[in-house]
Design a protein that fits this description.
The structure is a homodimer. Chain A is 28% helix and 25% strand. Chain A is of the alpha/beta class. Chain A has a 9-stranded mixed β-sheet, sandwiched between helices. A two-stranded antiparallel ribbon of chain A has the order 9-12.
Chain lengths: 270, 270
């Protein structure tokens, strides 16, 4: 009987090509959220950062059609991380990174860490999450990370810790190429975080309330604001998990077909 | 036994309040697509048009956070239709229309008729469809209409006919308040359209190919282009239906949870 010749585990690991990780966000290339994400995972692979040159919150899945885009290589303190600034939206960043910088698909795309929540309906408005979804459309497994704290001095230690745990886990798996995870981290000291909960997206929305004012020339203008309301009392939702100090993980898809309504309408239009 | 006293059908119909229909789009308030949609349905209810003041294609679910918005009432040839122009995105238009113009929820929101396809993955980039989705988030049943023809002189007769058929049908029903229908119409003469097919969203995507040029000052720029590729061979998809001269109807949802992946990850993070 022929003996199998397999390399010892350590050698196997050394032989393995380092995974390529594309990192982007919607708060811009200089935000502390993206710097914290890079720090959390930079020894886990070859990191390429391609992120917007200015804040792009609330850009959803917008792409730039009517204008040209620019890319600029950025000098950072850390030479080991190639960093690019892009004039486009978060989704543009992913498209340009793959087509013009990497010129091949990275093993993983990470987006964030977003300054502020992207749980529940926020997923649909969020540039951070739309960048992750765009990666998944392009067959690159991806994760968006958000911390429930808008402040510039936010404490990212819990978010960094869990980002690293999740990325380490994913890099060991054979991943669904269209995988997107929406990870939100509660704004509490790291020690108070109870762990990770896999959830569904809560049904919640913003009750709009535009601020209505006149400009110095007497012309009326409106400024979007709104109150977040959670209509979903389920204990399996992201909002519930975050309220109870868990990191929420919602797997996200880009097939938007409502199959339940599809069955209903099939009876009407055969 | 007490006799039921119900009004005769004709009286019932007369007594019924006229439905309020909000119409928006992403090609802008002056586009021929939106004018055709208004014409197709204007006798079916009280029509209010609130649409962007400039083209907003590819804006996805973007909202305007960092800037104020303006609304302007527009004079049109038809006094019976109240028309407003808005400086924001298609999603902003829906939010502002409900909060500041209607000050209550309309019975139905229609978006389009879009100049160009919004089938398959286009649904996620489309301002037209995002406006419809926003309405549904706000508990307003909605339909987005798109014609597979980009040209300004496109023939909207088939799209108008089917928009009217669909809206007439919906106005007779008790609708799911979160209903969104993505309706696409093939670019063929009306007589060649075979009817309506209820479909799922095809798995298709754009293979990006940015045009790379230097500007007059020698600086590199990139311009998004790309080839549409349908990877989905199913005969139950919107792309299939349109290829076979059917009007495709895909019910759309805004719960993006991937329940299949959720079950998988629940085994890992309990």
């Amino acid at each position: 009987m022929k003996k199998k010749t397999t390399a010892p585990p350590s050698l196997k690991r050394n032989n393995k090509k380092r995974p390529v990780i594309l990192i982007t966000n919607d708060d811009g290339v200089t935000s502390s959220g993206i710097r914290n994400l890079v720090e959390a995972v930079k020894d886990l692979g070859k990191i390429i950062v391609v992120a917007p040159d200015k804040p792009q919150s609330g850009m959803g899945h917008a792409i730039t059609i009517g204008q040209p885009l620019r890319l600029q290589k950025i000098q950072t303190d850390d030479d080991s991380v190639e960093t690019w600034s892009c004039t486009g939206t978060p989704v543009d960043c992913v498209k340009l990174a793959v087509d013009k910088i990497l010129r091949s698909k990275p093993d993983l795309c990470l987006s964030g860490i977003n300054h502020g929540a992207n749980h529940s309906i926020n997923v649909i408005y969020s540039g951070t999450m739309s960048a992750a979804v765009e990666a998944a459309i392009e067959s690159i497994p991806s994760v968006g990370f958000s911390l429930l704290d808008f402040s510039i001095e936010a404490d990212f230690s819990g978010a960094k810790k869990y980002a690293r745990i999740i990325v380490q886990h994913l890099l060991k798996q054979k991943l669904d190429k269209h995988m997107v995870l929406n990870v939100n981290v509660p704004a509490v000291p790291e020690i108070q975080i109870k762990g990770i909960k896999v959830c569904r997206q809560a049904y919640a929305k913003y009750i709009e309330d535009f601020i209505e004012r006149n400009d110095p020339h007497g012309r009326r203008y409106y400024w979007l604001t709104g109150e977040f309301v959670n209509f979903d009392k389920g204990k399996d939702t992201d909002v519930w998990a975050l309220d109870h100090n868990y990191v929420s993980v919602v797997p996200v898809q880009f097939d938007l077909t409502n199959y339940k309504l599809k069955s209903k309408f099939e009876k009407i239009w055969k």
